[in-house]
Design brief:
Layout (H helix, E strand, L loop, with lengths): L2 H25 L5 E9 L3 E5 L6 E4 L5 H6 L5 E8 L7 E4 H19 L2 E10 L2 E5 L3 E5 L18 E10 L4 E5 L1 H18 L5 E9 L3 E5 L4 E5 L20 E10 L4 E5 L11 H4 L5 E10 L2 E7 L2 E6 L21 E10 L4 E5 L11 H4 L5 E9 L3 E7 L2 E6 L21 E10 L4 E5 L11 H5 L5 E9 L3 E5 L5 E5 L11 H4 L5 E10 L4 E5 H41 L1
Parallel strand pairs: 3-5, 13-15, 18-20, 23-25, 28-30
Antiparallel strand pairs: 1-2, 1-4, 2-3, 4-5, 6-7, 6-9, 7-8, 9-10, 11-12, 11-14, 12-13, 14-15, 16-17, 16-19, 17-18, 19-20, 21-22, 21-24, 22-23, 24-25, 26-27, 26-29, 27-28, 29-30
Length: 569
């Protein structure tokens, strides 16, 4: 072979090789991913051959310790071409960017196929949470759960299945949602539940929410209402007495409205109505024992058996005490004995009485305190109309204000009595039905109006006394013996528009004329005006009388003078 031929072959090989390199270069574009082969490993770098005219170097810090340990020459890697030639003519590769590109491709595929991905919540940010799904993604607060989440910080570190609802590779933005998956799961459960739901069916559920009127039960994707009236045959004050959120409960489907989707549930319907045989089980007069389950202002509810409660009204708690509130006699949880007073199965009501289990002290009151008996007791309380006197435990008598004095006008019992003061009185009347005992204080002494007062005080007499009370209509005068007389305002001589308090003072001495003595009404009417008129007349009469004596004296003197003149003549 000639030299020319050999040179031609060499030239051809170079051209072929250059063409091959040029073809390879055209297939390798910056910003793309390609596969390469590991040709060398050191502590801080990995050398990769991608079929280019030179190998590329990847920094060792782009590999994890585990990856470096398992990597060996000949392994194939997906790498990202950053630059085919840098300023030094080197091929620049990146495993880190290749991994991220691969992740973004997977995320876009998941987004298009509407599939879910596991994500770990790494931090709380404004408006929601930051999630790691291979890249950082945003989980809005409204997309975290079906209901608002109060403790967002408590979610940090937890992993949930999520769905990508928005992705933008160029901007590096990914928005995910957990709520979408929860809604899908709920809807599937809901369809299954509704397909099998029938009235009268027993179904398991979980207490989802509690209100004043009932509890909402999650039956599996759909909620039903367990109303407070369908929780127990007995009385329930509030659903929270029976349930807490999260409780599992078996309930009966009472009604299912397919048009509105409303489901009514019942718990008490799982057992027979205990009120069916109440009338026969608790006849009137029966003594029963039960537990106090609740108190109200008007009484105590006593549970006789599960679902059956009776009411002990405050008026039926004690024979001897006026019970203002049941808490003064019983407490919730107490075991009490009572008598059945009335049963009304239709209204589901039983009336009970606690005092009926003990003898009624008023049954013996007539024999113990017959009318006319003189008793002694302490003043327990004072009212505007009288004083209550305690005779024994639970037995009080009333001294009415009208039975306190024969002669005085008592405006308030405090004028005579003080609380805890010992007093004597006479039994006047007994009303066993109404449990009332009437006492008299003035009856301890003889009625002075029968003889003493009419004999001592007569119409026309002038009497002296002291002002004991001043009223709008007149002033009361205390006379001898504690008797009171009234000077009506019209008999005071004061102008009608004037105030009596400005003209008269308590304990001032007054002399007045008796103008009326009414034995039946026990009243003495006095008059200052008439007394003043009488006084004025008396002065006039005395003056006239004195003038008459003078006239007679002058007449006798004139007559004597005339006689002397005649004798002189």
């Amino acid at each position: 072979m000639s030299t020319v031929s050999k040179d031609s072959e060499v030239q051809l090989d170079r051209e072929t090789l250059a063409a091959l390199y040029e073809e390879t270069f055209r297939n390798l574009e910056e910003g793309t991913i390609t596969e390469g082969r590991v040709v060398a490993l050191t502590k801080d770098k990995v050398v990769v051959d991608i079929g280019y005219k030179s190998e590329g170097v990847i920094p060792g810090d782009q590999f994890s310790a585990e990856e470096i340990q398992n990597l060996k020459v000949g392994d194939r890697l997906q790498v990202y071409i950053e630059e085919c030639e840098d300023s030094d003519g080197n091929l620049v590769l990146s495993k880190e960017k290749a991994d991220k590109m691969k992740i973004w491709e997977e995320l876009e595929t998941l987004y298009k196929d509407e599939k879910s991905i596991e994500g770990k919540i790494i931090s709380r940010i404004k408006g929601g949470m930051m999630v790691d799904i291979g890249v950082k993604a945003f989980l809005p607060g409204s997309q975290i759960d079906l209901h608002p989440v109060r403790d967002l910080d408590g979610l940090v570190g937890k992993t949930f299945p999520l769905k990508i609802i928005k992705i933008n590779h160029r901007r590096g933005n990914v928005v995910v949602s957990r709520r979408v998956l929860l809604e899908e799961t709920r809807d599937k459960k809901r369809q299954t539940t509704l397909a099998n739901l029938k009235e009268g069916q027993l179904i398991q559920g979980m207490v989802k929410n509690i209100t004043d009127y009932g509890s909402f039960i999650d039956l599996g994707g759909i909620d039903g209402l367990l109303h407070i009236t369908d929780m127990s045959w007995g009385r329930v004050g509030h659903p929270s007495e029976l349930f807490t959120v999260g409780d599992k409960v078996e309930v009966t489907v009472l009604k299912y409205d397919r048009e509105t989707g409303r489901i009514s549930l019942g718990l008490k319907q799982k057992s027979a109505d205990p009120w069916t045989n109440v009338a026969g089980k608790y006849p009137i007069g029966t003594r029963v024992r039960g537990r106090v389950v609740s108190l109200t202002d008007y009484g105590a509810f006593v549970e006789l058996e599960p679902g059956v409660e009776g009411l002990v009204h405050v008026s039926e708690m004690s024979w001897t005490h006026e019970v203002r509130h049941p808490s003064r006699v019983v407490a919730v949880g107490d075991q009490v004995e009572a008598a059945v007073l009335n049963v009304d199965p239709a209204s589901r009501k039983i009336s009970l009485g606690m005092k009926q289990t003990a003898p009624n002290p008023w049954d013996m009151i007539e024999s113990k305190y017959p009318i006319g008996t003189r008793i002694e007791g302490k003043v327990k309380s004072l009212t505007d109309f009288g004083a209550f006197i305690g005779l024994e435990e639970g037995i009080d008598g009333l001294i009415h204000i009208s039975d306190m004095s024969w002669t005085k006008h008592i405006k308030h019992p405090s004028e005579l009595f003080k609380k805890a003061q010992k007093v004597e009185a006479i039994v006047l009347r007994i009303d066993k039905e109404k449990e009332r005992l009437s006492l008299g204080y003035k009856q301890l002494s003889r009625d002075p109006w029968e003889d003493a007062i009419p004999a001592q005080y007569h119409v026309g007499d002038s009497v002296a006394g002291k002002i004991s009370k001043i009223a709008d209509f007149g002033i009361f005068i205390e006379l001898d013996g504690g008797v009171e007389g009234l000077i009506h305002i019209s008999e005071t001589g004061v102008e009608p528009q004037a105030k009596l308090e400005e003209k008269f003072k308590l304990q001032d001495g007054v002399t007045a004329k008796i103008i009326k003595v009414d034995r039946e009404e026990r009243k003495i009417a006095l008059s200052l005006r008439d007394h003043q008129l009488d006084s004025d007349r008396k002065q006039v009469d005395e003056y006239h009388s004195s003038q008459g004596v003078l006239d007679q004296s002058f007449g006798r003197a004139a007559k004597q003078n005339r006689k002397r003149s005649q004798s002189d003549d």
